[in-house]
Amino acid sequence: MSADPGSSLRWGAVLAFALFGPIGLPAGGSERRPLELRRRASAEPLMSSGRACLQVSPDRRAPALAHLPAHVPLRVLRRWQAADGEQWLQVEAESRRGWIASA
Fold first, then answer.
1. How far is CA 79 from CA 9, 26, 98, 101, in A?
2. 46-101 CATH
3. Residue 24 pLDDT > 80
4. Which residues pair with 46 in a beta bridge?
5. Tens digits of per-residue pLDDT, 68-85?
6. Which of residues 96 and 30 earns the better pLDDT score?
C-alpha cells in the first residue's frame, strides 16, 4: 500500500514550520509590546538642514529676504503646496518671517 499524498504534504508543512517558523518570532516567543509613538513637542524648534533662502512669497522667483545658514532654528507657521506640487513652509527665523521650499 502507498502512503496518502495529502498526509505527507501535511507532515512536510509541519516540519517546515518547525524548522523555519521560530526565526520570525521574537526572542520572548509571542511576547508583544505596544508601539511607542514619539512626537516632537510643539515648543521644540525645527532646525534648518542646510543653507536656505528665506523668500517673500512661495515662489522660486520671489525676492529673497535673507540667506539662512545651516542649523538655524525655524518655527513653522503654515504649509502650502503650489500648483506644480512643490511644498513650501512659511517660517519664522532670526526674527523674520518668510517662505522656504520644503525638501
1. 58, 41, 12, 10
2. 2.30.30.40
3. no
4. 74
5. 888 888 888 999 898 888
6. 96
